[in-house]
Design brief:
single chain; alpha/beta; 7-stranded mixed β-sheet; 3-stranded antiparallel β-sheet; 22 helices; 16 strands
Length: about 475
């Protein structure tokens, strides 16, 4: 069940702007400050806002969040989200600027990932992302415009900030001082081609040329009332530097939209060090995953009562499986696997292998047992996909067309296995059909699987590793 994280929404009772001046009290920080009157929205901006609200209010879990689409896709947000903690870490930006990431560890008593060397953080609610930051008790709180979000693969960054946050905003429960909320998937090829602020807004809205200009002029005059989510910068660092001047300026906060509210998400990898060197952020946040109690709630939502009770009893005796469940993506598929087999997975490799076996069994209509028992015909399908995954990963290509798959020589069986999902927004606008792997973790696993299979036979394998 493709559930992910629901953030605590304390503070969501902030008064909404209605066109009049008001004095808002930030209860959590204990500081009163003046905010300007909400501007009278031009008709084009009102129409754009309504368009976004209709889109986000559908409240569906992101397409392709999991491989088991019959139990994953189309679930209402309110049914499938459970709490997931955001932690604001003072000093995190400095840690990234000083050098490569330190090691990561897992806290056994509360399976959440901790960045070594970062100061202990405090949990922060979704609606507090842009709350003024209190540097110390002697100074006035500092305004926050740019937020860096860090989290490991599958921890829920995209689901939180490109699905849950827009849903809460559209439902009127969060960031109601924002008139336009735009979500941008940086890993998509067409995103990299965005060359101006007008094109940025048009990427999420159906706008004619006059409407694009009107929205742009509103954003330039009222940047604090527009929020842009730039998701998965780690997937496209090299391409951004090489081929996307405007998106680089947007990441750095150096466009004409000075003061634009910006949320940037990334894995804690080399891209973060690069990003911290290039950009300034007012707040750094880590998505830490599920606590034991949140795992329990997750299991209750995912499974029938008797199955959920059985799974939770087994998790008490299996520390490895309990730690794996701290990651929302893994938790979703661990629940699905337990529903099907009654067994727990202890590591990511085991889980992904079982997911692929399940897809191969569905395609062939027979049972194969374990990954090690797959017959040569099925292994050949995985080899095809692995070769394609490694080739595209080495080029940092995460979205591909039908032509890309044809050039790679993918067979129909490999293409139809169920590891790809369509980038739906391109279908709706009559653009060429684009696909991606259902999750970057799966893309990486298939690439690693193929690399392991050829490492002893390919003479030029080292060259490929150097390119990656």
């Amino acid at each position: 069940m493709a559930m992910s994280s629901k953030l605590r929404t304390k503070g969501s009772d902030n008064p909404a702007t209605d066109g009049a001046d008001f004095k808002k009290l930030d209860r959590d920080h204990g500081a009163a400050f003046l905010e300007p009157a909400a501007p009278l929205l031009p008709q084009e901006v009102r129409d754009s806002r309504d368009q976004l609200i209709r889109l986000y209010k559908e409240g569906k879990v992101l397409a392709g969040y999991g491989l088991f689409e019959e139990s994953v896709g189309g679930r209402p947000v309110e049914e499938v989200f459970v709490e997931n903690t955001l932690v604001a870490r003072e000093g995190l930006e400095q840690l990234f600027r000083e050098g490569p990431m330190g090691s990561r560890s897992t806290v056994a008593s509360a399976p959440s990932h901790v960045l070594q060397g970062a100061a202990a953080g405090q949990s922060i609610a979704l609606c507090e992302l842009f709350s003024p930051r209190a540097v110390d008790s002697q100074q006035q709180p500092t305004p926050v415009c740019r937020v860096l979000v860090v989290g490991s693969g599958g921890i829920g960054k995209s689901t939180l900030f490109c699905c849950k946050l827009p849903y809460e905003w559209a439902a009127g429960r969060c960031m109601q001082d924002v008139d336009l909320l735009i979500c941008v998937a940086l890993g998509e090829a067409t995103t990299i081609q965005i060359a101006s602020a007008e094109e940025l807004f048009a990427s999420s809205l159906d706008l004619d040329s006059d409407e694009k200009k009107a929205v742009f002029h509103f954003a330039r005059a009222n940047p604090s009332r527009v929020c842009v989510v730039l998701d998965a910068v780690d997937e496209c660092k090299d391409i951004l530097e090489r081929a996307s001047p405007f998106m680089m300026k947007l990441l750095k906060g150096k466009t004409t939209l000075c003061g634009l509210r910006t949320i940037v998400t990334s894995r804690p990898c080399g891209a973060i060090h690069w990003l911290a060197q290039q950009c300034r952020f007012d707040r750094s946040i880590e998505v830490v995953g599920f606590s034991p109690s949140e795992v329990s709630t997750f299991v209750d939502k995912a499974l029938a009562a008797d199955v959920a009770s059985n799974m939770k009893e087994q998790l008490k005796e299996n520390t490895d499986a309990a730690c794996l469940m701290a990651t929302p993506f893994m938790a979703a598929h661990c629940c699905e696997e337990f529903r099907n087999s009654g067994s727990l997975c202890k590591c990511t490799t085991e889980l992904l292998q079982k997911m692929l076996v399940k897809l191969l069994e569905v395609q062939a209509g027979v049972s194969f047992g374990s990954f090690e028992e797959l017959p040569p015909e099925q292994l050949a399908i995985l080899e095809e996909l692995g070769r394609f995954a490694l080739g595209t990963f080495s080029e940092r290509q995460f979205v591909f067309s039908e032509a890309d798959k044809e050039r790679a020589g993918l067979s129909t069986r490999a293409e139809k296995l169920g590891v790809f999902v369509a980038c739906e927004k391109h279908l709706s606008r009559g653009k060429p059909r684009l696909h991606r792997f259902s999750h970057l973790l799966l893309h990486e696993f298939l690439a690693a699987y193929y690399a392991a299979s050829i490492i002893r036979t390919e003479v030029d394998f080292l060259d490929m590793l150097v390119r990656i």
